[in-house]
């Protein structure tokens, strides 16, 4: 009678799906993002016009859009743009506004950690809310082509930088009196529009109210533009604490 093996059988590990990075994914991403890129270009035109109102040059607008590539941060920085520049407030506000990129990067890390460092980090420069969401939907559907993020991000980058430069170049030629065209209200209008897609239900109301309350108090009692930083920080902290519960 043959001896029974006492070895313990171990289940075979499920192989992780391969991640590709090729021109097919790149151009698929570039095509998919065009409708969103057109919408971002509208904000870019507004940014360019407003940048002219705080006396940024065309080159400065190009460098800010090309190196920062973060629309909400750039618009906030314009509202802080006074001489002498509040460098600390600008840096801290930018960090807070873009802190969500840490979470987005963590979400796509299972796929991007399997790319070479050059491909991964070069692609992540073009990470935005919009192309992150599209790319994650592709990954969830089993379409693991990481170049989709690069193609969609590069398309957004081109639309954004081009539209901001056009807005800065043409804006001052057309708009001599910003208040006449309502552009003195443009900052407020743009940020109200940006809030709409961020509303996810009543659970978001408390952080928003705290942010607004702190900002109003800071604007009343503190000089300069610190109310922007303090309001954003207060709202972020409350949001984190609520999710921690």
TrEMBL record:
<feature type="transmembrane region" description="Helical">
    <location>
        <begin position="205"/>
        <end position="221"/>
    </location>
</feature>
<feature type="transmembrane region" description="Helical">
    <location>
        <begin position="32"/>
        <end position="51"/>
    </location>
</feature>
<keyword id="KW-0472">Membrane</keyword>
<feature type="transmembrane region" description="Helical">
    <location>
        <begin position="227"/>
        <end position="244"/>
    </location>
</feature>
<keyword id="KW-0813">Transport</keyword>
<dbReference type="InterPro" id="IPR011606">
    <property type="entry name" value="Brnchd-chn_aa_trnsp_permease"/>
</dbReference>
<keyword id="KW-1133">Transmembrane helix</keyword>
<dbReference type="GO" id="GO:0005886">
    <property type="term" value="C:plasma membrane"/>
</dbReference>
<feature type="transmembrane region" description="Helical">
    <location>
        <begin position="179"/>
        <end position="198"/>
    </location>
</feature>
<keyword id="KW-1003">Cell membrane</keyword>
<dbReference type="GO" id="GO:1903785">
    <property type="term" value="P:L-valine transmembrane transport"/>
</dbReference>
<comment type="similarity">
    <text>Belongs to the AzlC family.</text>
</comment>
<protein>
    <submittedName>
        <fullName>Branched-chain amino acid ABC transporter permease</fullName>
    </submittedName>
</protein>
<dbReference type="Pfam" id="PF03591">
    <property type="entry name" value="AzlC"/>
</dbReference>
<feature type="transmembrane region" description="Helical">
    <location>
        <begin position="146"/>
        <end position="167"/>
    </location>
</feature>
<keyword id="KW-0812">Transmembrane</keyword>
